[in-house]
Amino acid sequence: GKREVCEDADETCKPTAAKLPKCGADNQPDCDGGGECANVLSGFEVKSVLRDSARDKTIFIHGTVEDQEAVVILEKTPMRQDNLAEIFQESRLKLQMKNDIYSTYQLQPPAHLNEIKTTVICPATQKHVKKYLSQEMFLVEETGEDYLSTTLPYIESQSFSVQWVYNILEKKAEADRIVFEDPDPDTGFVLLPDFKWDQKQLYDLYLIAIVHRRNIKSLRDLTSDHLPLLRNISKKGKESIQKQYGMPACKLRVYLHYQPSYYHLHVHFTSLNYDAPGCGVERAHLLTDVIMNLEADPQYYQNRTITYTLRADDNLLLRFREAGRC
Ligand code: GTA
Question: What pTM does this model have?
Fold first, then answer.
């Protein structure tokens, strides 16, 4: 049957421990699934605001929790139609101004309708801090040769840990969030909500399919040998989303990032209505296009030039500059 998307809506993480725990996964009580947990943020000390977007109603903050570096992302979530009646009936209204037929108010809804989606990365590395800092972007045109001589050595020497991915595949984390799994070691994958989606409304639906195979870093590694895997993700991913959330394939944007942040192959499934971060032409490659390109040329992604953007402070950009490639 169709899955309820609002099942955790009333559960909160309330402060319970008198002593603030360290933020690392090993000593933080597991708060998976919306249960109660200690308020690890009560001692959060702000060092700097990395990015602040009034349009997206999101702020990215760098700080410390008990001497550990942390990045905290606060995001006001979209309005939900099914809350409207409660918002109108239960809120307090403060008049700001009235002029003829026009008036503006400040509306204070009940606390449970006023939650802020909060993402915590702790301990955060310098690379995390850089990732969220507002930066000037530069376009790079990476040939197949550039990939082998410049990009591959760089990503092998310094990329984000994919431990969180292995935790998902091994059911050590987020096991209760899995929407669909095909356990086949070659063509199988796990489909689950992306951590950018709070699952409270379908407007910003966002799931990721993570492949079981551990030897595919990115689009660049894909050949026609991977077509059965890619077709399987496309077909079963779309079918599962239709079944669980009632959203048809024609309302989904299904794509891979190049460059990704995490070099273990995964596919993004986002609602077409939602302008997800990273869904622009300089980063997103539609899964259907990827499949057709590989059908036409088995080595397409080893040979073609791929254009993408890099941040001004990205060491990969420095390497491209040193190589005289941009
Ligand atoms: N379920 O633990 C996780 C997890 N992690 C660590 C990452 N993801 C996870 N999902 C689950 N559990 O969509 C998700 C990410 C991302 C995907 C990796 O895996 O949310 P990618 O390798 O192509 O990397 O995809 P990408 O897209 O750069 O990563 P990310 O983090 O989405 O960053 C892209 C931009 O999105 C950022 O620059 C920022 O502008 C924005 N962004 C990131 N996180 C948030 C957030 N929490 N709220 C709002 N905006 C955000």
Answer: 0.87
